[in-house]
Amino acid sequence: MNTVKKIRLGNFELFFLRNGSFWLDGGGCFGIVPKIIWRKLVYADELNRVKLDSNSLLIRTDEHNILIDPGLGNKYSEKQKKIFRIENKPSIDQSLSELGITSDDIDIVIATHLHFDHIGAFTKYDNQSDIQGDRNIVPTFPNAIHYIQKGEWQEAISPNERTKGTYFITNYMPLMDAGLVKLIEGNQEICPGISVEITGGHTKYHQIVFIKSQANIAVYLGDIMPTANHIKVAYTTGFDLYPVEVMRKKRELYQRAIDENWIVCLDHDSRNCAGYIRQTPDAKNYTFQPYEFT
């Protein structure tokens, strides 16, 4: 079954990859918004969990195969699978195979941040075990440089009581050991047409990714706006470390998105992986207009 959607953006090709799904507490997903309101937007299961997809973005240029947030991966215990109702189908490898490539063909990987649902697939189990019988963990993309904000890296390797449930060191430390990490500081260009910008909010050093070609702009928003159901400025999540900063940043980014007609790419929406931000007729709120794939 074909699960990959495609957009031509100037000289670039954008491929939207589905890499499994997981379920999180509905209250956590909508923060201070009461269930009597958010239940009109999304289904909650018997444990009050709502489904989130893991949507990665592959950018193909003349020179690079660039992957943003490869997703969940499959290094989870049975307990974790049960808590988060993790479904690792299709996997990142299955999504890439639809395009006739493998993980070895990826040469740049960019992380918006290092939470497990975004970069669990940075690493994988190999087919060997060490002398104690533990399974070895190796990089999934052995030919790629992984671009990570230095501040985010430092937060992830020294998590606090609140963040330790979302940062798993086995997802990223093997990359550093293999010499595959490029720690960056602040806004910068990764390669021609691809740049990152720190937003903060969700985590202190959360970043978004800009894709620009021939005056066309697409932006992968990460967890600043994880789904179309979070279009309202006040709809932050309980997982945002700095929710007021998320609100401020959303207002700023929304105006830029409207002025420059961005294609915005959503990391967790189960129905809409891309679309446009528009203002309501009264100019008081915003709406999400899904992209019409051909």
**Widest beta sheet: strand line-up:** 1-2-3-4-5-8-9
CATH level 3 topology:
Metallo-beta-lactamase, Chain A
**Taking Cα atoms only, what radius of gyration do you get, to the nearest Å?**
18 Å
Query: Mean of the pLDDT scores?
Result: 95
Low-confidence stretches: none
Helix- and strand-based class? alpha+beta
Number of domains: 1
Query: How would you name the CATH homologous superfamily?
Result: Ribonuclease Z/Hydroxyacylglutathione hydrolase-like
Give the termini separation: 17 Å
Total count of helical runs of at least 4 residues: 8
Biggest beta sheet summary: 7 strands, mixed
CATH first level: Alpha Beta
Number of beta strands: 16
Oligomer: single chain
Shape designation: globular
Order of helices and strands: EEHHEEHHEHEEEHHEEEEEHEEE
Helix amount: 10-25%
The CATH architecture classification is 4-Layer Sandwich
